[in-house]
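Example record for the data management plan.
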Amino acid sequence: MNKKNLSNQNTEVYKNYLRVLPFFKELVFDSSNSISNYWSEEINGFEYIFEASPSIINNLRHHCHHITGELPYEYRDHHNYNAPKFKSKLELLNTLLEEDILVPEPNILGGFGHNINGKLINKDTLKYHESLIALKKYGLLNEINEISNPVICEIGAGWGGFTHCLTESINNSKFVIVDLAETLIFSYLYLSELYPNKEVKLFNYEASSLNECDFLLMPSSKFIDFEGEIDLTVNLCSFQEMTSPQVEEYIKKVSNQKSKFIYSLNRDLNKNNADLKRSVSQIISDHYEINFIKLLNITYTDINPLNNNMSLRKMIKSNLRKILNKSSENINFSYQHIIGKIK
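Corresponding structural encoding:
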């Protein structure tokens, strides 16, 4: 969409927005919703989404920084000097697999990124790519692809970026997307625009089960009502922003729904979230046998691949921290890839 028609009120995404807006407003004011103090403060920053102009909705991707922190400003032409770092980080990730499974940023609703070999690449792209690599290396992508019409549950899908990556990587998949009502509207609009031939439905308002759609979006307060088996549950960077009881309820729920596997990219504990008392890995291990997948020496937030070559001093310090962490219930403030198999 070019700059001239961003204010167009007749786009499909804006008409879709106006249609579902009353549903989401009702959900936001539902007293049964429960959120952590962390997200209660974050939500205040993007309440404008519920009274948005066509230019905001038609350029929705530019407003997703409230969810993942990525701003389009960082990818404008005058920041092209950073593109080589992104290219090098992508090349580093690609050394981990023999095949290319990259799903680039789509060029819709203001999609942005550095143009690398004709593909839009940003930090979100690299994060999702790294997560796909973790699933692929563990053999999980292949295993899920052998299932006919696999059901994926994504908790905290944000704007729908990783949902898109999984849709492109897993054949004939269906999704249950669970999120706060305030952020659910982002993935609803994004996925509806991205997949016009698929059915995106809001639970209780447009559909009562996954049998009626391809993407069933559920506010977190209603997830208790979901019925049906799950093949894979995924969570990227939002368990760490919840309270311990909330994470525990999610893990218990998906295990009750017989989710065979769970994948998590989170910090064990979050220094910015005092409501998370137990580590994410401990909570997952209540119901799952967990494996830590080691890919790089740097996290997805570090774009400089040179930092992946840890010096001997850094490696010794890192190992010392791990030893000390064992005496403090394996506390880990770094991002880690965890794959759990139901017990």
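Summary line stored alongside the record: Strands lie at 114-116, 119-121, 151-155, 174-179, 200-202, 215-219, 232-236, 261-267, 288-293, 335-342.
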